[in-house]
Amino acid sequence: MGPVSEAVRQALNQAVKTPCLRTSRLLEQELNTQGYPKHVFGRVNQKASIEAASESDRGITERLANAFDASLTAARLAMGIQQSDRTLTPRKCTQRFLCPSTDLAEWEPQDKRIKFGKPSIQFWAEEKEEKLRFRKYHPGDGLVSALVRDSGIGMSRQDMPKTILDLNSESKLRAFEAIGQFGHGGSSSLAFCESCLIITKPRFSANDQEFYWTLIFTEEEEGETKQSLIRKWFAEQDGMPLVGVIKDFQDFGSFLPGTSIWHFGYNRGGWITRIAGSGQENPWGRLGRLLFSYPLPFEIQGEFARTDTPTGHRTIKGAFYRLLDKKGDDAGVVEYASSEKSEKLIVEGESYGQFSVFVFVLRDRKGVRNYADIPHPIILTLNGQNHGEMTRTILVNANLPELASSSIVEVRLDGLEEEALREIISNSRETPKITPFTRVLKERLQELLGSDEALLDIEKKRQEEKAKKSNKDLNNRIERFLSEILSDAAGPADTAPGGDAPGTPGRRGDPRPEIPPNDPPRLLEFLDNRGFFISEGGTQLAKFKSDARPPKYSFHGDNPRCFALLKLSGPLQSRLSIVGKADINSRGYGHISLNCIEDPSQPIKDKMQLGELFVRIQCADGTTLESHAIVGVKPKSPVKERRRRQEVKTQINFGAPENEDLEELSELLAEENLLPFTQCTYLEKYREALGILQSETTYWGEKTDRDGISTLQVEINAGNPQFKKLLQSCRTSEERMVAKERYLRDVVLDCYQHCFKMDGLPDAVIEHALTEPEDGKRAAEIHLNNDKALRTALHELESSRDKVAQ
Questions:
Q1: I need a labelling partner for 303 at 20 to 30 A (CA). Which of 137, 226, 272, 396 fits?
Q2: Residue 268 in contact with residue 141, Cβ under 8 Å?
Q3: Cα(529)–Cα(688) distance, rounded to whole angstroms?
Q4: What is this structure's pTM?
């Protein structure tokens, strides 16, 4: 092993000083000329691991995750802790060494022995004419060279082939502070670039002058194979990465020790642009979303960091912490931020650990794009990293349709067991797998969202505001039309008795009153003094109220002051357990989730009291508050209800695009209250699904339940050119009203058929019809149905004129 040649040294220096495809190819050419050996990256079959990330933003995120891992390991070792253990999770390690506050993502080393800074990234635009070798298709977004750098632990020469140059390595399985564990996350970034330069130096090394490096490059595979390309890396004659001496490279000492990784010819993917805000079309918004609640910040450097300076830097933290910063700020960005809710994931009677839920409601739905992907505001995270997203359908199904477009929900999977994580998280980290585990997770999430007092209060207020602008006479006529169509829509309870139907009366109407906060608290009571009897195989929420507030009074965290306890006796006591706890929310309500395990071999036959449930709060003044309630179990029985008169309420609102003359449009439609497009939740959902202009949207409808009665909410674009053309073609106001109502009947019926189960249809047809399609698919169908409805209305208008003429 000798020093690199002068030609190689110059080529390496140039690639670092001017990162681009041209300098990387010169470096590759020089290493080839010098005859350096080549080793296969990881293994010959690379496809599955390297292409694990489906988008270029995921590839860079995985590299950043590795940089955070290296930083935390370096902090642990700097503090003299040689052995990692299960207590040093990424969040706890961060809080102990680098960021003491759990509500901030600040880089604040807690010991003078930690002398390094946060990870960083930097981008350099490639020339427009540059193309990647070995590829026929070249995306129109263009290419950059991308650097991900940390000043953490670094790597030894011996470790490089077993870690960063390997696939599915075991290096992180015993590093509990590390996010990674699958062994190929960072490697997925190679799928989006032509070559990759790695320079590293161990932080705790006896040799202060040596650093280690290699270039990963793409080469065509020889012989007949299904894998036409293969990635390799350059080595010394001894088969190990190349060695450099810092004194021979004047600028390298500024970023070593640590690890720097350059990606040459990286696919911009539509998100690597100069930062002019925190939306999803630039690194600030995109990477902040993909590292949603990772508790440490990173930095973007260089020309892409800002639009106001040619070069600069910008510190970025996860979207969760930016939302916390906006909670209660003067601008009023966040209307509501929930306390933590934690629940056990129980699948077929077995517990697989617990997950936690956090909810943010924004005042303006447009602000969602600064923190999340608008159609997918429900984010699944593992150790703070985004591992999948779900649509807002869950919020709609939780009877929160008005909040569905302005809410962001984080579901933290940190506490789940490995078996559950494997059943939920997909390799792409984009959408969860379709499994029983994911189904149960969605069901529990929907129940938790639908039981949050504060969310229900905000939803009710927003629905009432919108209902005030709805045309009551028009709604009544449409309701009479729908009453002739039998479905599963639920109207008021019938006058006939319900017989021996089980269950206790539900609560409808106005939200419960807000409990003013107090410290020290003086109030703690269960809401239902009749006790809680859980059906076999079911879960029930035991709700309570209090004037205590988190974070000081919480079930969660390192020093909780709230506690839940079951005191049970009898042969069935093992069947009942606490599976979740929700901290007291801003209105003064929390809950404890109780579950009764189902055992088909020994079914519960009779209602039975087993003991008591206690909730306690240890107050800061030394006193203890306590409330208790009777708990027990009961048989699993078919649900029996009062028969219901089949009825559906409608709420039809007309929206107006921003460029429309509202006065002229109101006169044309004979509608006094037109909603501005910013308040049209469903029309905006439609527009986003197809990527069309506001004026091109047509209508959208959703089902919700309000006070126990089914409501069909429909929004119609009054400014749609085809709709306006129909109304303008009418000769009289009477004709206009007839044409308008004829069109509305088709629109409402289309929405109705999509949302409600129709009587008399085969079950297979019903199941297929009510399966929630992707927003884009449904929006496309609506576009076609709208054209049919307009043509029908116009045809009937012309037919009626012909009859009059005859």
A1: 137
A2: yes
A3: 47
A4: 0.83
